[in-house]
Design a protein that fits this description.
alpha/beta, 3 domains, five-stranded parallel beta sheet, 5 strands, about 55% helix, DNA binding, DNA-binding MurR/RpiR family transcriptional regulator
């Protein structure tokens, strides 16, 4: 029986060859795999504007005899996770009943928790571990997030450079391609990309790949256009009840990646962090309460 990750990988690989109707169904499955486990075929189809027949054809397209056989891998993944749904639902109901802002806060909390849980359930420790190792060993590791994602890439660069000297932040103030002209074999490009996907990001990643760089991609779906270029793919769901995508799970993955970089580093990494911290303290960069005389 295929595992969930194997099913999702197969679906992502075959998506471009599917009919438009089946591509819509595939995208829904790739974006919301937990819904497949907890919702009937008819219910899932109705929720995402797909016909039940499309879901059945999608399952058969992947080599399953029927939809329940396809769904089994999703259900097993949910069963193996922590049993916290009841207590979480109770807490969310309590939040939703508190004051005028309660319903909005409850919906936001529900989305953020679901995104983080989905990100960590889907992640393969080997994949994120290999991503950290690639960034450490690279001649130069470029960090890129355009538009609203620039803040996340800047955060990763700011914290990461305490441990590594090979990090370069790709600024979005000018031409991104100009900043990647020297990228090549032995380099790594860490890229953040979520829907709506920036065309400039896709062009930059494709260019880096042609130049021989390895790509660590943090994106919201296996169906994202940048996912095809990933040597290491990290999925960060961005579902939100508001008009803007949620960045909570992307930040959680970046922080996990930073933690792995430090844990995989040698003694020099720890010494570099301690040295910079000591310099900041000596130069008065950190605020400290003044002693009363």
């Amino acid at each position: 029986m295929m595992q969930l990750v194997e099913i999702l990988d197969l679906l992502a690989a075959r998506q471009s060859a599917l009919s438009p109707q089946l591509q819509r169904a595939a995208r829904a499955v790739l974006d919301q795999p937990e819904e497949v486990a907890i919702t009937s075929m008819r219910g899932f189809a109705q929720k995402f504007g797909i016909t039940p027949g499309s879901m059945l054809r999608l399952a058969r397209e992947l080599g399953f005899d029927n939809y329940e056989q396809f769904r089994h891998g999703f259900q097993e993944a949910v069963r193996s996770g922590p049993d916290t749904f009841a207590t979480r639902a109770e807490w969310l109901q309590q939040v939703g009943s508190q004051g005028d802002g309660g319903p909005v806060l409850a919906e936001m909390a529900k989305a953020q928790l679901a995104n983080i849980e989905s990100a960590f359930r889907q992640i393969d420790p080997q994949v994120i571990g290999d991503a950290a190792a690639s960034i450490i060993s690279a001649r130069r590791s470029y960090i890129m997030g355009l538009g609203a994602l620039n803040g996340l890439s800047g955060y990763f660069h700011f914290v990461g450079r305490l441990a590594l000297e090979n990090l370069t932040l790709v600024q979005s103030t000018g031409s991104v391609m100009d900043e990647l002209l020297r990228i090549g074999d032995g380099d790594v490009l860490l890229t953040l990309s979520v829907q709506p996907y920036a065309e400039e990001t896709l062009k930059a990643v494709a260019f880096a790949k042609r130049q021989g760089a390895r790509c660590v991609i943090v994106t919201d779906s296996r169906a994202a256009p940048v996912a095809q270029f990933a040597d290491h793919l990290l999925l960060a769901p961005t579902a939100s009840p508001q008009f803007f995508p949620s960045m909570t799970s992307a930040l959680a993955l970046l922080e996990s990646l930073l933690a792995l970089i430090v844990s995989k580093g040698d003694r020099e990494v720890v010494e570099a962090i301690a040295r910079i911290d000591a310099l900041r303290n000596a130069e008065g960069i950190y605020w400290k309460p003044r002693r009363k005389r």
